[in-house]
Every structure is written in structure tokens, then in C-alpha cells.
Specification:
globular; alpha/beta; 27 strands; 420 residues; eight-stranded parallel sheet; eleven-stranded parallel sheet; 15% helix
Length: 420
């Protein structure tokens, strides 16, 4: 079992057409060898439903090999149709409101703070390493945003590797990092727990609300831990509320993604790590996301940090793909805290998943308090016959609360990436 983690509790109006695009915008190819294109994305250009579902089936390539990926990167026809049905179901309420939207924006749908921030367009500032943008570093761009910011600011980041350690403090709400999907910029640093403490080791830490990232790679380049103390290394810490990540990568080893606190949405993303590489006390929905374990020995995907009955938090993985290296070497989660809540639904699980699936972290008393659920998953790692007795194979009724955008109250705040 991995060593105990060192952590603290730190943790003009949008068009209706774009709202539809947001929920069905699928993953584009993660090809980082494409020619450099430093032009910002064109405003309002989103693929059609047909093309996005086609690209969704394409492989989520990454530098490390994935040895047990199922056909079509783990996304087979039945899952395609099911995901499409899920999208349609979650769009039903929106479609019923179309008539009202046509006559004027219904401001009761979104929270007032968000409406005010998005109204009247967005400010775009550009970052390019060659000096041809407004700034040469992401840090300088973030520093230019005023404290108490109340309007959406898009930081468009040109292709390249940015060696920076960045914190967006809690006074700078409504910040968007935006990259080119075909030439995805990387923000890289090598901070570790030994240097900064685990949660403060993050390459990028976001403490503000309403953060959005699109087509960005967040990387912690610290070496793979070899058993020494203090080798945890976070690539991204998200501690603000109402944050969304679209087609982003989170690359590291131990503690890659600190899903610290707040409501978060991850779509078409890629997360790579070894131990506890998605951890924290956030309330988050991961949709169509690839999870890759590269642990040499025992790996653990989640360490969800819910502790009290009234903690409104948990990680939900929906239509995801779990792959990696090795056979039966990785747990879906471990009971780092007393009452973790994690559900995997309609997810492909490769051979890397251990038969027991879940660990009580050598705390048998937590067998009665954990909420570890699975629902209609597939692949060799999903076989439930040897699952830990405290894990739940959920019924249709039991899974309902976790199978909707309402789990993160998405209808009040979740918008498509802004036009830039």
C-alpha cells in the first residue's frame, strides 16, 4: 500500500446554440506533433454533432503506451449510443425552454453573478513565447487581471512549453485558459511535497470560482516516486467552485490532480498518474475522460476525501476509459478518509484493475462508511465476482442521483467555452 499522503484541508449573454454544443463537444485528437498554429480559435466555430461523435471515437494518444486499450480507444458502439442518449436526456429541460430563450434570455436559469460576468462579451489577452502576444508568460498574463475581477477574461496561450508555477488567487474569478487543440500548450513545473507541501506543489493552482480551461496540458515533471517521503507532486489543484475543464491533460505520478473542493466538470480529459492521482474533497463529474495508470507496483486512482455525513462531495466517472500498464495492479479507490464517495458508471475498465476493485486502506471500520459504487461498467477490470464486500453494484434506482448534470447543479452555471 502506498505511503499515507501529506495533505492539508486547503483545498451580451451566451448563445443558446453554444449551450447545445457544450454538452456534445467531444474530444479532439491529442496530437502534439501537429504544425504550430498560433492563431486564436475562431469565434463560435464548433463541430457538428456527427463530426464530434466521430472524433470522440478517436484515440486519446499520450506519450506513454497504453497496453490494454479496448477497440476504438475503449469506446464501442453501445457506449456511443448510450452517451448520446445521456446527453439528450440532460438537454431535455433546456430544449423545453427554447421558446423562452428565443424571446429573451431567462436570467433565472443561471446564477446572477455568472450572467453579469458573461454579459457583453469577453476580454482576450494572448500569451506567446516568441513575444508576439500581449505577454510572454502565463504568470504575467494572470498578474495583469485585476483583483476583484468581475468579467470573463480569456488567456489565450500559444503552443509551447511554459515552465511556470502559477496560482490564481480567490479574488480573480472568471478566468479562462484557452489553447489550440491541435497544438496544445503545456504548463510545466516540478514542485514536490518535500519542497512546498502536497497541495502547494501544484504546477497550476486555482483558488477562484468560475475557472475554465480548454485544450491545456497541466504537467508536474517531478520524477516517479521511489518510496521516499515527500515525493507527491500535483499538476493541477482546483479549489474554486463552478470550474470546467474541456479537453485538458493532467500529467504526473503521485497526486496528479487535486480535486480539492467545489463543483467541477471534466469533459474529454486525460489524467495520468500512479497513486491517488485524482484526490481531494471536490464534488465533480468526469465525462468521457481517459484515466491512465502508469504505476509500476500497486496503483490507486482515487483518494476521495469526504469525512462527514453532511459533506456534499464525491467523484462521479461517467462513460470514462481506464487503461494503463500491468495486470490487476490498480485500485479504483482507497479509503484515505472516513466517508469517500466515488461512482464509476458506464466506464470501460482495462486489465489493470484489481479484482477486489477497492481498498479500505487497512481501516476495516471504514467498510461501513465508504460509498464505492459501480454501474454497468465493461471490460476485463469490471468483473464484480471478486469485488470487496463493501463495494456496491448499483441498481438503476440507486445510480439515478449520479447520472445527471444536476449532481453538480450544472444547469445553473455550466456554460460552453467562451467565444474568443
Amino acid at each position: 500500500m502506498a505511503q499515507e499522503m501529506i495533505r492539508s484541508p486547503v483545498f451580451s449573454v451566451i448563445s443558446t446554440a453554444l449551450l447545445v454544443s457544450h454538452l456534445i463537444l467531444a474530444a479532439v485528437s491529442h496530437n502534439e506533433d501537429s504544425p504550430v498554429n498560433n492563431s486564436p480559435p475562431n469565434a463560435g466555430l464548433f463541430p457538428s454533432i456527427t463530426s464530434t461523435l466521430h472524433s470522440w471515437l478517436e484515440s486519446h494518444n499520450e506519450d506513454s503506451p497504453v497496453t490494454d486499450s479496448p477497440p476504438n480507444a475503449g469506446l464501442f458502439p453501445s457506449v456511443t449510443s448510450t452517451l448520446h442518449s445521456w446527453i439528450e436526456l440532460n438537454m431535455k429541460e433546456y430544449n423545453e425552454r427554447k421558446g423562452n430563450f428565443a424571446r429573451g434570455f431567462n436570467r433565472t436559469v443561471l446564477d446572477n453573478t455568472l450572467v453579469a460576468a458573461e454579459d457583453g462579451g469577453v476580454k482576450v489577452i494572448t500569451v506567446r513565447k516568441d513575444g508576439s502576444g500581449d505577454f510572454k508568460t502565463v504568470t504575467d498574463a494572470v498578474n495583469s487581471i485585476p483583483c476583484g475581477n468581475r468579467k470573463r477574461v480569456v488567456v489565450w496561450i500559444g503552443f509551447g512549453e511554459y515552465w511556470e508555477k502559477i496560482t490564481i488567487n480567490r479574488t480573480k474569478n472568471f478566468v479562462t485558459f484557452y489553447g489550440d487543440p491541435n497544438n496544445m500548450p503545456k504548463i510545466v513545473y516540478n514542485g514536490t511535497a518535500a519542497q512546498f507541501g502536497t497541495v502547494y506543489s501544484a504546477t497550476v493552482a486555482v483558488e477562484s470560482d468560475y475557472f475554465v480551461a480548454v485544450n491545456i496540458a497541466f504537467v508536474n515533471s517531478a520524477p516517479m516516486p521511489d518510496g521516499k517521503v515527500g515525493q507527491q507532486a500535483v499538476a493541477m489543484r482546483i479549489s474554486g467552485d463552478k470550474a470546467a475543464f474541456h479537453n485538458c491533460k493532467f500529467i504526473g505520478y503521485q497526486d496528479t490532480l487535486c480535486d480539492d473542493r467545489g463543483r467541477h466538470f471534466f469533459k474529454d480529459c486525460f489524467v495520468r498518474g500512479t497513486v491517488d492521482f485524482i484526490f481531494g474533497n471536490g464534488k465533480s463529474l468526469y465525462l468521457n475522460t481517459t484515466i491512465q495508470s502508469v504505476a509500476k507496483d500497486c496503483g490507486v486512482i482515487t483518494a476521495q476525501a469526504r469525512e462527514r455525513v453532511d459533506d456534499d462531495s464525491g467523484f462521479i466517472f461517467l462513460f470514462c476509459n481506464i487503461s494503463g500498464v500491468g495486470n490487476s495492479s490498480t485500485y479504483l479507490g482507497r479509503a484515505w478518509k472516513e466517508r469517500p464517495r466515488v461512482v464509476f458508471a458506464k466506464t470501460y475498465m482495462g486489465t489493470i484493475i484489481k479484482g477486489e476493485g477497492w481498498s479500505d486502506n487497512s481501516h476495516p471500520d471504514r467498510d461501513q462508511t465508504v460509498y464505492y459504487g459501480e454501474y454497468k461498467c465493461s471490460g476485463p477490470g469490471s468483473v464484480s465476482s471478486a469485488r470487496a464486500k463493501f463495494a456496491k453494484i448499483l441498481s438503476d434506482e440507486e445510480v439515478k442521483p449520479f447520472m445527471s448534470m444536476s449532481y453538480i447543479h450544472g444547469s445553473t452555471w455550466l456554460l460552453p467555452p467562451p467565444n474568443v
